[in-house]
């Protein structure tokens, strides 16, 4: 028999073997993921020190514009040099370093399901979903403004798939709800649709206070007890370059005062809100983050904080942000190195700039995700559903990203190498030129030997064509709808649910004056 004749028979044998495999891919929640490999580093020790030294120079000589009288008063109380006329706060290196010493290098945020507690720091890798998008998009309804139904759908899908370790704050903006009270409905959706750690909105004092109060109800604790057993995070920005608005600062200080986690992320796009060079952007990013982390420690010593990195570049022809670029990869790897030097946990992002769920969206996200994981970043934001540079949350992209996240979870698993794995006896038992399909060694393992994809289609061209010839994006439509429809509410005590709804009704009336 020629090689050309033998190949179809081998293909049929493979199809028969696949038919006996397990019934489908796992959708069990991702476990706590530990990166056992050494972090990938692009800077040498001297370069890291030069960035840190330069960041301290920026804080001492240039400072930040702090648009909150209360925050300026805190800085002044602890040694900051405050110019009330310009609202500029300058910080000596000694002041910042003294307060950074109190920021924990690792900590735990408690989930309603204790098995889903969020461990931040060390070599633990955590994925979070898309956040901050004004639009929702899917293949059936197209691109449109977000609403509370889409908000809930995103939480339901990622919870059902088990692909995130925490829920993002504003997974999509629910523009159908009144601005002053919409955060209440968002928090209620987080609590009712999932049981993992969730994020408070990163802007505003009422938004922070209500998140703390509702999380305390969710966990059956007082606000004071919550401070000793934190449950929340907030991801918030600096208005780069070197400015922080009052509403952002108000939310930060309330979260820190109550012992909840603040993830401070300067918005440093090279050539726009930061220097066009990687080194300069890293200096600015580090300076801005350290100033706010120091403020959190001034407000409450030991408050959990994360140094966020979002440095990327812009398209210099149009000014549009670009993500998943080589520059973004460099910045992500370098930010994690700086975080290790400063003994701070680090937040990064798995992002792209594509306007649709296509090859560009996938390879840019893949570049970003690889950098996040290999840098040993601790919180990986926007890891499921981010599209269009953050202007859209995509339901199909959630499924595409789920495949990558589950693949990485499998890659991060330790590889077994016991005597049986080495397979010497199995190799000897198969005749030269034979095959291992019927080997006892194979039959004992074939159901669980390999990763089962959620989205990928491994069938032959003919089988794929005959089944409709659908692309991965088209297949993703059916998968996210199936996940949404199969979602079941996580356990929530009826008395707690009632108390939460009562709180939301009361606060909405207070805010609106109804």
UniProtKB/TrEMBL annotation:
Family that this chain belongs to: Belongs to the trimethylamine methyltransferase family.
Keyword Lipid biosynthesis attached: no
EC class (word): transferase
Name this protein carries in UniProt: Methyltransferase
Any one Gene Ontology BP term: methylation
Domain of life: Bacteria
Species of provenance: Alsobacter ponti
Gene3D superfamilies, per database record: Trimethylamine methyltransferase-like
Pfam assignment, any one: MTTB
Any GO MF annotation of the entry: methyltransferase activity
Upper lineage: Bacteria, Pseudomonadati, Pseudomonadota, Alphaproteobacteria, Hyphomicrobiales
Keywords: Methyltransferase, Transferase
